[in-house]
TrEMBL record:
It comes from Paenibacillus chondroitinus. It is an enzyme of class 4 (lyase). The gene is iolE. Keywords: Lyase. Its EC number is 4.2.1.44. Pfam families: AP_endonuc_2. PANTHER family: HYDROXYPYRUVATE ISOMERASE, INOSOSE DEHYDRATASE. Residues 34-294 form the Xylose isomerase-like TIM barrel domain. GO terms for molecular function: myo-inosose-2 dehydratase activity. This is Myo-inosose-2 dehydratase. The keyword Lyase applies. The keyword Repeat does not apply. SUPFAM superfamilies: Xylose isomerase-like.
Length: 302
C-alpha cells in the first residue's frame, strides 16, 4: 500500500442512523466495533449505541485498538438567549472527549434547521437563513466554544451540514470569515459540500488551512436529482439513499485524495455512508470503499 499521511477511520452512522432512527435500530455496539476492528481501522466517532461511561467505553475501544476521534455536538448560538446554557453544555461535551483522548469536537449550529432546531414546528417547510444579527451571534458563540475546546487541547471543527443554515458554499465562506481562525476550524465533509451546492474540491482548496477533520461521503446523483425535483427535505433524502461511501456515488474523489496527499494532511478522515444498512450492509460497503481508496493511494505513490 502507498504512503497515506492521513488517518482513516469510520463513523458508526454506517451501521446505525443518527437522523433516521430506524436505520440499524437493532444493531449492537459490539457488532459495530467488531466490524471496525475487522476492517483494520483505528478511529471511530461516538454513536448512539455506544456506552456513555468513559471507563467502559475506553476499555471496549482499547481492546480493539480503536480511538474515539470525536462526537457530534449540536449548538444554538444564532440566538443569544441560548448562549450561556449552550456553552455550559459544550464544556461538558469537551470534558468527555478530552477524557476519551479525542482531539476535535464536531460542532453544528441547529438554529434555522427544520429537523434540529427545538424552536421549529413540524409543519414548517424551509430552512431559515440567518440575518446579520444571527450571523454575528453565531460567530461570537462559536469563538467562545472554540476557546473552551482549546482549554482542553481540542479543536472546534464546524460541520457544514445539509438541512441547516450553514450548508451552501457562500454560507461556509461567511462562517469562516466571521470566526477566529485560531478558535474555529472546519470539518470538511465531501458529501455535505456537494449536497449544499458546492464543488467539494473547491471548498477543500479554499479553506484548507482551517480544516482539522474530514468526513468522506459520496452522493447518489439520481437520488439527489429526484429529491430536488420533489423538494424533499434533508431527512427524506437520507431515507431515499442520497448518501453512500466513497467510490459508490458520483463524486470524483481522485483530485480530493491527491490534494490531501500533496498537502500531507495528517488528521483523521472518516468514512461515512449514512444509508440503510439493511439495503447497504455497512461492513461490505466500507470494505469496498477502503479498497477503492487504497488502490488510488497505491497508484499515486508509484
Amino acid at each position: 500500500m502507498g504512503k497515506q499521511p492521513f488517518k482513516l477511520g469510520i463513523h458508526p452512522i454506517n451501521w446505525v442512523g443518527e437522523d433516521v432512527k430506524e436505520h440499524g435500530a437493532d444493531t449492537t455496539f459490539e457488532q459495530i466495533v467488531d466490524d471496525i476492528q475487522a476492517l483494520g481501522l483505528t478511529g471511530t466517532e461516538m454513536g448512539r449505541k455506544y456506552p456513555t461511561d468513559p471507563t467502559v467505553l475506553k476499555a471496549e475501544l482499547a481492546k480493539r485498538g480503536i480511538q474515539l476521534t470525536s462526537q457530534w455536538k449540536s449548538v444554538l448560538f444564532s440566538d443569544p438567549a441560548y448562549r450561556e446554557a449552550e456553552l455550559e453544555a459544550y464544556r461538558k461535551h469537551v470534558e468527555f472527549l478530552h477524557e476519551m483522548g479525542s482531539t476535535v469536537i464536531s460542532t453544528c449550529e441547529v438554529g434555522g434547521s427544520l429537523h434540529f432546531d427545538p424552536r421549529r414546528t413540524p409543519n414548517e417547510k424551509e430552512v431559515l437563513r440567518f440575518d446579520e444579527a444571527a450571523w454575528h451571534s453565531l460567530a461570537e458563540g462559536l469563538n467562545a466554544a472554540g476557546a473552551i475546546a482549546q482549554e482542553y487541547g481540542l479543536k472546534l471543527t464546524y460541520h457544514h451540514h445539509g438541512g441547516t443554515a450553514v450548508e451552501q458554499p457562500e454560507e461556509i465562506d461567511r462562517l469562516m470569515e466571521l470566526t477566529d481562525p485560531n478558535l474555529v476550524y472546519l470539518l470538511f465533509d465531501t458529501g455535505h459540500a456537494y449536497y449544499g451546492g458546492a464543488d467539494p474540491l473547491a471548498v477543500l482548496r479554499k479553506h484548507y488551512d482551517r480544516i482539522a477533520y474530514i468526513h468522506l461521503k459520496d452522493i447518489r446523483q439520481e437520488i439527489l436529482d429526484q429529491a430536488r425535483a420533489s423538494n424533499a427535505d434533508f431527512v427524506t433524502c437520507i431515507r431515499q439513499g442520497v448518501f453512500t461511501v466513497p467510490g459508490d456515488g458520483c463524486l470524483d474523489f481522485a483530485p480530493i485524495f491527491r490534494e490531501l496527499l500533496e498537502r500531507n494532511y495528517s488528521g483523521w478522515a472518516m468514512l461515512e455512508g449514512e444509508q440503510d444498512p439493511a439495503e447497504h450492509p455497512a461492513y461490505e460497503y466500507a470494505k469496498k470503499s477502503l479498497d477503492f481508496i487504497q488502490t488510488f493511494i497505491s497508484q499515486e505513490s508509484r
